[in-house]
């Protein structure tokens, strides 16, 4: 069952989203060669709690970190630890924030210093696929339109969407119905209605789409060892169109305003 939110409830989720974006910006300022992912985690937790919020991931099904930090061929769900960022790495950072019982979820992949042309293309394409998905989050569209928007954009650039991991509805719980795959058929699936809120999260591999789980039971890697990227927004479907509750650029989710890094 898809739980719809009132405009007031969406505003509360946007307040959680605002703290989340400030957390990601703080982390972006700390991403550099030599920093450990544990240090990023510590900074994130401290900041989120200083805002009267809590990190949504901490303790979720036993997850030990406040954020997920996934370098290079790791797609998602990396446990922060002793890994030191190296020059030329990609680091995907996923953050969840709970404020007054409402959850926001967003992720970005950052380059550590200069990165390869392949890495640049992966970042640009993955972010562009998220913007394409935002545009599809409108009343009257179907979920398949959102999924297809991601897949079409990614595959046009010769990259692969991960198929075994999906986005999700979000609200008072981090994971609500519906599941939001990053591939699908336009015009299929549940009708999008005002008040639905989705965490849309393209996970893209530079190589093939298959993934494998790491030895810790959390980390997910591209099976072929290719680079991976992950961009995620929490997006509300409103009468006025898509509203990104975790905006990175001013005007995110509005036509013509989607800049890339
Ligand atoms: Mg998510």
Keywords:
261 residues; alpha+beta; Creatine Amidinohydrolase; 28% helix; disordered C terminus; binds magnesium ion
Any overview of this molecule?
28% of the residues lie in helices and 25% in strands. The chain contains 4 helices and 15 strands. The radius of gyration is 17 Å and the shape is globular. Helix 1 runs antiparallel to helix 2 and helix 3 runs antiparallel to helix 4 (143-156). Strands 8-7-9-14-15 form a 5-stranded antiparallel sheet, with helices on both faces. Strands 1, 2, 4 and 5 form a 4-stranded antiparallel sheet that branches. The chain has a 3-stranded antiparallel sheet with strand order 3-12-11, with no helix packed on it. The longest helix has 24 residues, at 7-30. With 261 residues, the chain is an alpha+beta fold. It has one domain (7-256): Creatine Amidinohydrolase (Alpha-Beta Complex).
Helix-strand layout with pairing:
Blueprint (H helix, E strand, L loop, with lengths): L6 H24 L6 H14 L3 E2 L11 E5 L2 E3 L13 E10 L2 E10 L5 H20 L6 H14 L3 E2 L5 E3 L6 E5 L16 E4 L2 E3 L5 E3 L6 E3 L5 E3 L2 E6 L2 E4 L17
Antiparallel strand pairs: 1-4, 2-4, 3-12, 4-5, 6-10, 7-8, 7-9, 9-14, 10-13, 11-12, 14-15
Assembly type of the chains comes to single chain
Mean pLDDT metric: 96
Hetero compounds: magnesium ion
Largest sheet: 5 strands, antiparallel
Our measurement of the CA-to-CA distance between the termini, rounded to an integer number of angstroms, reads 37 Å
Per the CATH scheme, the topology name is Creatine Amidinohydrolase
Number of helices: 4
- Based on the coordinates given, report the CATH architecture: Alpha-Beta Complex
Helix content bin? 25-40%
Spell out the helices and strands N to C. HHEEEEEHHEEEEEEEEEE
Helix/strand-derived category reads: alpha+beta
Overall number of structural domains: 1
**Share in β-strands:** 25-35%
């Amino acid at each position: 069952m898809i739980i719809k939110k009132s405009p007031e409830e969406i505003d509360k989720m946007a307040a959680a989203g605002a703290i989340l974006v400030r957390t990601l910006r703080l982390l972006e300022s700390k991403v550099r060669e030599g920093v450990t992912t544990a240090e990023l985690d510590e900074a994130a937790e401290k900041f989120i709690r200083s805002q009267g919020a809590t990190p949504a991931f901490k303790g979720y099904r036993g997850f030990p970190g406040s954020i997920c930090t996934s370098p290079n061929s790791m797609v998602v769900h990396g446990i922060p630890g002793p890994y030191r960022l190296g020059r030329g790495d990609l680091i995907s950072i996923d953050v969840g924030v709970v404020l007054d019982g409402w959850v926001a979820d967003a992720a970005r992949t950052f380059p550590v210093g200069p990165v390869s042309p392949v890495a640049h293309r992966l970042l640009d394409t993955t972010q562009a696929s998220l913007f394409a998905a935002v545009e599809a989050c409108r009343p009257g569209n179907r979920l398949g339109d959102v999924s297809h928007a991601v897949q079409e954009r990614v595959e046009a650039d010769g990259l692969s969407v991960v198929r075994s991991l999906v986005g999700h509805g979000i609200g008072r719980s981090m994971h609500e119905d519906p599941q939001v795959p990053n591939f699908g058929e336009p015009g299929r699936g549940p009708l999008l209605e005002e008040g639905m809120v989705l965490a849309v999260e393209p996970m893209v591999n530079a190589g093939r789409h298959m993934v494998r789980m790491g030895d810790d039971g959390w980390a997910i890697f591209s099976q072929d060892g290719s680079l991976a990227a992950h961009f995620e927004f929490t997006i509300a479907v409103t009468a006025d169109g898509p509203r990104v509750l975790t905006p990175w650029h001013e005007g995110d989710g509005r036509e013509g305003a989607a800049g890339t890094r």
